[in-house]
Each structure stands twice: as structure tokens, then as C-alpha cells.
């Protein structure tokens, strides 16, 4: 009770030793009235971008934060003044930053979206600090983890699937290309979160993009730098956890957290819920996972919805599910431009998909060009890397082992795209060339690669829709292939699945136009087929090795502990951002941020929802309880840090409002489960690409028509 009466009483009472003080606080923390008295105490406006990471120092006197503005800021939460602002040297969003233990808060390690790690000394110049960087990760570096009571070493994890261990006594920088010296674990799939057991720090938990949490004994591991690296992702693994319903899915782990006593682990999944498990439990080991063939059948459905970057319409306390907006007839006059563009893009694909599914599924084949967009996640969105046209004379399919998904939709549902001849929709006044059906319908194939969690490829294939019975003879004795594309007889006999061209050979080289000389033409066709077969063989070999590696990993991990789910916490929404922290507070509470802009607090032992706090205009990502005092720090999309304390005179929990928010979150989680976020430029470039493709198609029709006229005249 005394704690509630004055917000600074625990700061002023220095006569109580730290351990006793902590014990007094946590006894009061265990009562549900404590969390139901929480109230916003202060807002720290210390950044000019989304705040992606916050952490307390060992004594709780300072908060270290990192942001999209690439700065690191050390703030005193009690007088609310900034102690130090550090221009970190990062060129991408800062995702994680920690004080090194026992360094008087003068040494900091941080990582960012471009994979670079900086080791910063607050007392040294900016020039010296910027030389202390590690560029070993390729792809996003997600998290930095320090080791309790160790001022010299730290760990990191990233999109490249590696967990790396760095020793500052050996080196304070590394810019070696393709460096493998400090790899501790190679998970062979994106490692998105890590956590160290506080009481037994040689236990390391790693969350991966395949829905698994693996716990390793670091005493059995080593790096190339230490001379005992094994290179196998199963070495040292003693526990493997995944909820049963996620064993066939790839849900990214956004947060891992050990309890203070190290007896339980809390794991939060993207597009799913939060789970608690006991690492010593082994109840799930007898449950065998599905076969590889079954895994292929149970792959997640293809992406059916695109969202444009900057569209935060489905986040925040005032966001509503689409079904509710349609039911209430909400007109939303103040809808942002990004939201309108997202809606248009979604309607385009949804309407086209419905039109496609209303008739028999056609056989399609690319009709000349493929628009390829390679995208990369930032913390919340995708950033496009390149956009280009790829010449292709066959479909862009992949072998069955590929994790890609494809959805084919008619492009005639797209907005009208003008061509150089003034025609739209891909039509032309020029009569169709020989072998083309005048009613062939152009379709747009959305091909989405989900191999990684931060990198993905969206491929838009402009194809002709045509049934096999429409194949027509050519004047030269050849035949039109299934989709209306002519192929040489030697190529049409090739039953090898289509594949990407081999290294050093572009797709333009494998689909070069016919030469005047017939012998040269046959030679080129034979070479093209050879290269395609060679590339296909290499890809098949790659997937064969991957399958063998997975089978070997399964056999090697048969005897490790496989805990079952002890408790599940739901009601929040975790789908929009790559960072969504969940954590323990005291002995009885579990907390998480949410895409609805609220902080959720549950009873740790029963899963009962106890408190809801509105904490961001869009998304709450980070939650960090003070190590000793009853203070909670939170951050998210807003450009600030918020501090919460038990300042309410009496418990205050609006259960009716909480139930409404939970119901909406469940609906919106389902609505957006198969949604990806792309840059706004994606839509403009896609339309421009289709316009370019259609223009080339019209010109090709004219060329073939002109050639036929010349033959008739002769």
C-alpha cells in the first residue's frame, strides 16, 4: 500500500538493501491488484522513429533504447532526462541493444536490419566506435544477448540461420567477407530470437522460423575461432519445443524469455499465440511428426492479400475488422491513401481469384516476360531491393520440395493499362498470329517465395490461358505448347521440371530469339535444353540434400526432450511486426504487446486475462519491467517510451472493453493471416511492368502478323 501512495517512495528509501527491497516489491507484485492499478506515469520523447528495443541497466537507473532513427539513447527514467545520445553508425533500423555487464554502463552492443553489429564505448569518439563493427551476419540481425556477469562476450542471431558468439578479448571488429569464424550454431533456418537461462547461463534457447525452439548446452559448442566448431545444428541440443498444431507450419518466433528461476520458457509466435513450457518436461517426445510428403500437403496457403507499406489501418486501438466495418456500413471518409491503395490491390487479386476459381483451372505458360520483385523486411514492413523483367520461354515452376506458393489470377481484372498503340487490357487490333487463339485470356500469376522470414520474392507471370486441346500445328511442322508458346521438338520432349538458369547464365541467355541459320537454331535449342536440365539437376540435388539433412536431424534429435505446452495465452494480436516481446513480471504475471496498441497482462498460472493498457497509437512491441521497482517500460510504433506505475487509487479493469478488444483481435488475426506488406512502389512498378509486358506482346503480335503476310505474298 505504501508503494502506491507516492510514486517515488521506492527511490527515496535507500536504507533498504537491494535484495530485501526487491523481495518486498515482488511480494506486492504477486497480487493482481498491482497490475490492475497500473497507470501511465511518464512519456519519454527521446527518438525520431519507432522505438524497437529498450533495456534497463543492471541497477535500473537508466534505460537504453534503439530506434529507426539509428540512434542509441540512454535516459534516466526518474528525472526523465537524456544522459547520452549516441549516433550509432547503423545505417538501418536498430533492432536490439544491450549494456555489457559490469562495464559501468559504458559499453554497448547493438544490431540492426542490415545485419551489422556495433560495439560502442560511450567514452570514446564516434570515429573510433564506428570502426568497431561486425559485418559477419548476412541478412537481418534480430537480437543481441549478453551473458550474465560476463563483460567480454555476447551472442547474436539472424536471418542467415546462425547464432554467433563474439569475444571482445579476441577482436572488437570483423569485416571479413563471408565470415564463419564466430558461428556457434547453424540452425539452417532463420534464427529470430535467443534467450539465456539466468541461473544456468550455459543453457541457450533459440527460436527459429520453422516454429521450433531449441535449447542448447553451450558447454558442448564451439566456434572456428575457438577450434572446436562442429557445423551441425543438432550438436549440443538438449530440448526441442513446438506446439503440436505448428509442427507443420512456419511461424516465426518473435520473442523468447526464461523465467527468473530458469524453470520455464515463454515463447511468442507471429500470427499465433504465446506458450509456456517447462524445458525439463518430456511429454511430447512420443508424438511423431508428419512425414515430409505430408508436410508438403500441409504447407500454408498461398498469399491472397497484399498490404502497402505505410498502411497501418489494421493497427491501433481504433482498428476494426473488415467484417465489422462492412456490417456497420462504415464509410471511413478519412481513410489514408495507403489504405485505399491496399484495398484496391487486394480487391484486384481477390476478384481475379474468384473469377479464376469459377471455371476449370487452366494450364498456363509464361507468355514472354516475368516481373520479379525481390523484397526484404524491415522491422515492420518490406523494403523492395530490385524490380526487373526476366525473359523466359517456359514456366517459372519449381520442384515439389520448394517452399514457394503460386496463385494464378486473370490480369484482365486489373485496372486498364494503356499500351503504345492505345489499347488496354492486353488486347490489340492486330489479328492474332499463327497458332494463337484470338480468345486467349491473359492471366497474372502471383508467385510468392517464403523461404526466409525477412526476404521474399513476389513474381508476377504474364501468361496466356489456353486449354491443351487448343494446340495448333505450325507451318514448320512444330506444335504450340500447352500455353500457346512455341517450343522446338527437342525441348518439348524434356520432362525435367523447369528451373532457374545455371550460375553465370541469365534467363535471357536460355531464351534467345531464333537465329537465321536452322543449324544454329537447333544448336542453340540443344544448348538451352542442356543448360536447363543441368540447372534443374542441381536444384533437385539441392532439395535432395536438404531433405536428407532434415531426416538426419530428425533421427539425431529423437532422444532429446520434447516438452508439451504447459499454458497458452491469447487475446492479443501478433502479425504486423517482427518484434513482439512477451515477458514475465514477478511470479504470477505474463505480459505482451499487441497490434491493437494495447499491453495485455495474464495470470501466469491460469491464463486468465487480468489487465489491458492502451499504450500505442498503432503497435506495442517492447515491454521491459524494471529489475527491482514496480515500473514497466513500453515502446512501439510511436516515437517514444512510456513508463507505467501502480498509481491508480483502486484496481481498474474494464472487462467488457477487454472482451471486445479480444474478439476483434481474433477476427483480425484471421483476416490478416495470409497478408504480406510490400512497398507502395510495388503497385506502381507492377502496373508499369504489366504495361511494358503488354506493349511488347502487342508488338510481337504485329511482328508475327507481318511475317505471315510476307510469307503469303511470297
Automatic annotation (TrEMBL):
Residues 284-299, 308-330 have a biased composition (Basic and acidic residues). GO terms for cellular component: Cul4-RING E3 ubiquitin ligase complex; cytoplasm. Residues 284-336, 349-370, 396-519 are annotated as: Disordered. The keyword Repeat applies. One of its GO terms (biological process) is positive regulation of transcription by RNA polymerase II. WD repeats lie at residues 44-74, 613-645. It comes from the Eukaryota. SUPFAM superfamilies: WD40 repeat-like. Residues 396-414, 447-458, 488-497 have a biased composition (Polar residues). Keywords: Repeat, WD repeat. SMART domains: WD40. Residues 415-430 have a biased composition (Low complexity). Coiled coil: none annotated. Transmembrane segments: none annotated. PANTHER family: DDB1- AND CUL4-ASSOCIATED FACTOR 6, WD REPEAT DOMAIN-CONTAINING FAMILY. This is Ddb1 and cul4 associated factor 6. It comes from Cyprinus carpio. The gene is LOC109094982.
